[in-house]
Amino acid sequence: MEKKIAVFWDKDKNISSMQEASELAVYSFDKEKWYAEESLDITGLYEGGIVRVRNKTFELVKKLGGCRIIAGKNITGVIYNILNSEGFIISELNVFAEDDLEYLYSQIEDQFKDMEKEREEALLIPTAPSETEEKGDYFFDFSLLKNTGTKHSSKSTILPFLNNADFRNLEIICDHVMPWFEEEMKKRGLYYIVKERDDKKISILIEKKD
Fold first, then answer.
1. Pairing between strand 23-30 and 4-9?
2. Percentage with pLDDT > 70 across the chain
3. CB atoms within 10 A of CB 140
């Protein structure tokens, strides 16, 4: 992560909400000090319909380059959602001065490291059932995958396996029985048992009968 912070300013150079901001000032750190690298004119960022606002926001994201920290007041709505999905760390502040840049960066750097660690750990979690030591027996802990915040759904991870895999038994760990589950089991003529585990999660054991 480049050592940069973008701040929403109003016309009086006070930290601002996106709706009231007239510029996005980008600060960089070099040679032991912070300096204003550039100022992006964002007047009218919220003008127009939602499609136009989204397009302007994505253009702004491109201009920010390696800067992934944004500070401002009350950052919400469609622009917040876009910035969040693009991997920005968003800091909401009511007051701000340039002397606060180093402290803010140090706080966010720790948060960013935690986020990177979580992403790395999430990559290690299986996204499909895997075979156990017993041939034909498979196991899938969807509850772990669900809690990683990734876009994998129960349907997108389980149904392709049921459609294509040659299996005998499949155990799925989840928080609840999925709404689509019973109908899909009936379609395939599959038998299943649901049990509550000691950790309050649900174990679904699917058996494919000969």
1. antiparallel
2. 92
3. 22
pLDDT tens-digit series, residues 139-177: 999 988 876 666 778 898 899 999 988 899 999 999 999
Can you read off the two tokens belonging to residue 164?
């294509």
Alpha-carbon span 71 to 100, nearest angstrom? 11
Buried-state track 155-185, b at ≥16 Cβ within 10 A, e below 16: eebbeebbeeeebeebbbbbeeebeebeeee
β-pairing, 89-92 vs 130-131, is: unpaired
Q: DSSP H helical segments within the chain, as ranges?
A: 50-64, 77-85, 101-123, 142-146, 154-164, 181-188
> Looking at residues 39-65, what average pLDDT do you find?
89
Q: What is the helix (H) or strand (E) element at residue 30, kind and residue range?
A: strand 23-30
Place of tokens 């002397």: 99
Tell me the CA end-to-end span of the chain in Å, nearest whole number. Answer: 55
16: left (phi over 0), alpha (psi -120 to 50) or beta: beta
Calpha distance 156→126 (Å, rounded): 13
Task: Enter the DSSP assignment of 90.
Answer: E
Contact 85, 24 (CB under 8 A): no
Residue 95's Cβ-count burial label (10 Å; 0-12, 13-18, 19+) is: exposed
